[in-house]
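Input for the complex:
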Amino acid sequence: MLRLWKLAFGLLAVLFLLVPMFAILPLAFNDSSILTYPMTGVSMRWFSELVEENIWRRAILNSLIIGLSTAVFASVLGTLAALGLRGSTGRLARFGNLIFLMPMVAPIVVLGVGMQLMFTRLGLNNTYLGVIIAHTVISVPFVVISVSAALAGIDPALERASANLGASPRATFVHVTLPLARPGILAGAIFALATSLDEVVLTLFLGGAGQRTLAREMFAQLRENLTPVIAAVSFVFIVGTVCLGAVNVFLRNSRRFRAEGPAE
Amino acid sequence: MSATTSPAGTAPAHPTRPHPIIRCDRLSKSYGTVRVMENLSLDIAPGEFISLLGPSGSGKTTLLMMIAGFEEPTEGAIWLDGRRIDAVAPFRRNMGMVFQNYALFPHMTVAQNIGFPLKMRGTPRREIAGRVARALEMIELGALADRYPPQLSGGQQQRVALARALVFEPRVVLMDEPLGALDKRLREQMQLDIRDLHRRLGLTVIFVTHDQSEALTMSDRIAVFNKGRIEQIGTPDDIYDRPRTRFVAEFIGETNLLTGRISGGQLRLPDETRLALADGNGAGEGDEVVVSVRPERMRVIAPGTMPEPGANRLEGALRDVVYLGDHLRLQIDAAGQALVVKQPRAGLAPQPGARVALTFDAADTRVITS
Ligand SMILES: Nc1ncnc2c1ncn2[C@@H]1O[C@H](COP(=O)(O)OP(=O)(O)OP(=O)(O)O)[C@@H](O)[C@H]1O
Ligand SMILES: [Mg+2]
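Predicted:
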């Protein structure tokens, strides 16, 4: 009996978490031009509008440019930070760690205001670079966490073995440390990409009309005209997120054989 | 006497022992305020198989790590082939090492693992392929060249680690309990294999173990470690038959320790029994000493019989008998001491509780003064 209750409760919890996310999806295929139930017929017109209409195409492109750049910057910076923090103990290192994780807990609005003030002076307002920097700042903590975990999982004996076998510290880093940390770096990059893709607040503060990302455009359109294209965008978002998650899980499960360097 | 044969500045080689390939000179090591090694000196001859044997925490790994360059001695110097190496980075020391848990690279295949030291030395790729193939043949794992280490059994991983440590033909190979994780049969097989490689390739091997039978079967010399010092160093015979300290006598094999005083060149037990000794080993009249006699050097005889002339005799009660296949292990209370005798199963099977006599030759006694 208790089992049954547990099962029912679990199911409810899952529904509570997922229903809001999936509720809008069927509307992406609705042929009515207002974004509301009930469905009147099935059509793909909102998807074609998404890829054909200029503002949406532009938004998709912007999301990709900003998202991928963020992923690259964040994983490079986050990996360097994790390497620097690695193995250092003591108060200073713990303080450094805290600094790197700060953007994750800082209120985004405060961050946005601060960046806007600073970026105006630097001339970075309403530029791609500005938005990319902002997204990188809030993505780095994910990379630091994920790479630190990967580095902590490396048996120190492996790096000793490498040195013993004649590898210089640089060669050990290239041939042993980096390949073994690669799954962590890739996972961090995926988190960074996902973070950038659905970021709205900072984009709102720092991006101009030229840097409207998909998420930002959705936000704008929601207020102006409730077009069902928004449902189509949501569909694309969710499918994309699920794919990214799947890639991440795949990478983690096959880390042993994924991490290999080029075959010699 | 002529000084002209020795070029200036070169120390003359020792007349009987070859120049040591490794010399540890008065090494000490502290972690913070904790002293884990004290004034340790050790010379290792080229081609020697030396075991570092001792209980957990006695400093065996610490010494190996200092030789490999992963730990720095707090005091003292290490020399490799006449060159001081304390300040040389580990990757320039050119010593093979087999780690306790093998430390194979999980992201490289077996062949890539074995080829790694060659690649780091800039060996041409074709030559790497050939030497890796030969190494794989030596460890009989040619069929597994493209597997990854996690897909191998413990024994196979062990052999890959061995091949990787040997493929670049280092002169010195360090092994830190390389067989610790293997089951008994595989262990014994690998002991023979390593011994064989050592002879064939003329390697100098420093082998850490805390298994005394492993050290006895494999080594040219054994250094017995205790609390960061070498308690005794010598051939297996030396260590087993002539332990210098009580610690060594008890750590290597099983032994009976009889406590008493030296009196007239004999050992006088507390119950006034007198035992003949091989020699006093420097102990003087009236000194309190411990005498070690190995269980297999004692024999149980029927209570009435007299021992051979010159042999010692003790009477006692049989506590327990354990059958161990080809031999018996008897526990006997005699002269107020609990003794163990190991002997073949021939003859009568004595019953626990029976009165028995046991005998041993004076030549098999060893006086321990410290
Ligand atoms: N990094 C370290 N910091 C502090 N103490 C250490 C460190 N490494 C080793 N020790 C201490 O040094 C002593 C010797 O350790 P070592 O590892 O050499 O022992 P061992 O003889 O190899 O033992 P085992 O048979 O268990 O491997 C131990 O008391 C250990 O606690
Ligand atoms: Mg050890």
